[in-house]
From TrEMBL:
InterPro entries xrefs: Transposase_17, Transposase_17_sf
Domain Transposase IS200-like residues, every copy: 7-135
Identification of the protein by name: Transposase IS200-like domain-containing protein
Organism ancestry: Bacteria, Pseudomonadati, Bacteroidota, Chitinophagia, Chitinophagales
Domain of life: Bacteria
């Protein structure tokens, strides 16, 4: 089955995991480097609402940039049409090469082809944020989303500079308190036990 192409202006849940469920993050520096590469390769073509990085997989909620917005990020190269798919490919290749070199490994780090699901209605928009932010709790990595270091939770509630669409997320829920309450309610409805990425 052919993968859905990423369409300009559309919203997506983007995710993938390590090949054979292998960990893609082996230590703290890996998470930081992954986000640094995300900002380099993906931010030019997509805006990020939230994310969560777990030891063997990741989740992002994004909106593909409009063509005119993309022009702001234009480099010295002539870009007539943003190639979103190539940006993602470059991103995964850059991270994989770095991990393979650092840990003396070979072969594919990620499962072939990243997954994407289009967010097409308001209820899905709300629930995907809850799903992504609470993923560490779902997989038993922490008791509360607020405890987890490698998700967008803290950045959404912070006043520090961020590339995340923080204001849009908070405005969607009405205020920071409403966002916190929603996440807590989402956590309370999670199963008691959940194997790390079944």
């Amino acid at each position: 089955m052919k993968k859905q192409r990423l369409a300009t202006g559309c919203y997506y849940h983007v995710y993938n995991r390590g090949n054979n469920k292998e960990n893609i993050f082996k230590e703290a520096e890996n998470y930081i480097y992954f986000l640094k590469l995300w900002n380099k390769y993906i931010e030019p073509v997509a805006e990020t609402f939230c994310y969560c990085l777990l030891p063997n997989h990741f989740h992002f909620f994004i909106r593909m940039r409009e063509l005119q917005t993309f022009e702001v990020f234009k480099t010295s190269k002539v870009l007539t049409q943003p190639n979103q798919e190539q940006h993602f490919s470059n991103f995964f290749n850059a991270y994989s090469k770095a991990i393979n070199k650092a840990y003396n490994r070979t072969g594919s780090l990620f499962q072939k082809g990243f997954k994407r699901k289009e967010i097409i209605n308001e209820s899905y928009y709300t629930s995907i944020i809850g799903y992504i932010i609470t993923n560490p709790v779902r997989h038993g990595l922490c008791n509360s989303s607020a405890e987890y270091l490698y998700s967008a939770y803290e950045a959404i509630l912070s006043d520090k500079t961020t590339l995340l669409l923080r204001n849009e997320v908070i405005d969607w829920f009405g205020c920071k308190e409403a966002f916190i309450d929603y996440i807590r309610a989402y956590e309370s409805n999670l199963p008691d036990k959940y194997e790390l990425l079944k």
